[in-house]
Amino acid sequence: MITGICRIELILFEVNSLKEKRMIIKSIIGRIKAKFNISVSEVGAHDLWGRSAIGFACVSTQTKHANQMLNNVISFIERDGRVEIITQDIEYVSLFEE
Length: 98
Hints:
Elements: E1 2-12, H1 18-36, E2 39-44, E3 51-60, H2 63-78, E4 83-94
Antiparallel strand pairs: 1-3, 1-4, 2-3
């Protein structure tokens, strides 16, 4: 079993309050969950207006598939004009080796 884990840091454009930020992040997270059916959450920069960190993970039997899933989510976020990815960290954890 392979677990793919990704953490991305985002800059949010034209955000003037935490309320606006939360609306954008909640929208992105909801769309990711609906489209990709993976675990995703805001994991950092909770009190900064123009920044956010999102973490997401998937479980697969192959590293290639996990990598493809994570990259699809990253591409999906990149196409959202409200945010820009400034850093991304991907890690793979292999459990229960056969």
